């Protein structure tokens, strides 16, 4: 063994007791992997809440680990899953709280349920194509490098024509979608299969690969809309395309009639009708939300097939009539005791209600909206709110002009307008067309009855005038002679006092009322002034000036100039605030004089006479020597010299001045008295003016 320098002989130790350094290092490494090391590993702060929570969690994990390892073999214990089902956690909550007591700061942990995954939609290609062919088509689709770009307007005729051109050279065509269809690829798949008649076999992000079908070249151009996404490309009637209610029997009868015209056999027509019947069965299997929305929109117009959101499809407002001859804004009548305008809470409620409603119309035209207005009025008979979407990708759309035109034609209430939606409320004064026609007819009948009654009344008056003609000629009531008789009978009524000047009396009453009000306000102000004067007198009685010093120290003019220059260069100043001079100011001056000879006091008083009075007061209270008063950019600077024989007084606060709190109260009372006197002067001036006006009015009478 190696020995220390002060040892003369080496140490003889048996070989089994020799210190092995490498073994110690291995032990130290194994020491870090102990089970109890997790109690203090990576814990910051021994007394923090987070540290205590981690220690408790480590203890519980260690206990669970030791119990499981004691029960299971070595290999099973290492790979054992310690997760507990949610049902067991809910059921054994009370038992766990007894076995493992929680810390006071630990709250009950919330149970979070995982979001259920969206069920995968089975496409038409997976239902109709063989699995081997579908797999082959997917492999070929991954190798395609060129695609057809779909604009924001959707799958237009130009896009369908490009797809048909690609299908003439091959059986697959790649289509890449732009916003908004790229956000709803399921709806994009439905639209592309509907308009092209192909099958989407492969999808990745914003791209679809469309298969033309089992039968060679495409058989449908861009002008036809095909709703059934099968390889045979069977066109359905327009009623099915527009999501109208069509029965299976009517579909079969139509197919048979069309095939008889074209010369097809009965078997083929029956086959086609069966496929249409299957499709109608798929329409019935829609959700209740879609069926109710379709029932609400049935009969309003054709649907917008390029709708980029999930179904139900809105009505295409651009396909409705532009101008309807004789169209007029509907009649409106507000019920009695009902406020016509919407309150803020009502507007908020309607906006929240409209958020969950389906979109009723899709609009891309700014003007000529007679057909849309008629459809909206018809829809308002079933619902209170109409939701209109602005088409994306249509050039020159202006939602503000759209909203103004619809409001002008329908008279509804606009509750929301942005670049995507326009929402209208039918209003509290909305009357359905049938009820409005009844109200109008009833009002016309009442007006007709009033005209007839007025005519009958006039005839009765004319006949009465003819019968009483002689009495009327002999009667003097209401004539000028009757007036002269009354005037002669009542001699007390003079010409000047017979007529009452109503306007002058009203003006007199107004002036007297205003005069009384101004006098009442003046009394209130005077009472407040008296109260403030009492408070101010109480504060003024609690302070006095210091005694004048007879033997005052004098300095020469040269010394004043030198001290003035020192004061101008000083950056340490003492600022007088709204409190003015109180005991704290004098104490601060002596504190300045403790370290320097000159103190510089800044005051914001506007008048020089006030600044001079403040300087004299500071000289009296501090026993210093006034050096100079300088005008600054803002305010004035008062420079005071402590004197050659200056000694810090043992008692700075003599008690003759106000304290800091009393000085603030004195300043507030002074400000209050000044403002009250100003308003009192205004009231006195208005009272004198009213008295002059009243005097002039009485003199004119």
Automatic annotation (TrEMBL):
Residues 501-542 form a coiled coil. It is found in: Plastid, Chloroplast. GO terms for molecular function: mRNA binding. Pfam families: CRS1_YhbY. Keywords: Chloroplast, Coiled coil, mRNA processing, mRNA splicing, Plastid, Repeat, Ribonucleoprotein, RNA-binding, Transit peptide. One of its GO terms (cellular component) is chloroplast. Residues 127-223, 340-437, 553-653 form the CRM domain. The keyword Ion transport does not apply. SMART domains: CRS1_YhbY. The keyword Chloroplast applies. GO terms for biological process: Group II intron splicing; mRNA processing. This is CRM domain-containing protein. It comes from Papaver atlanticum.
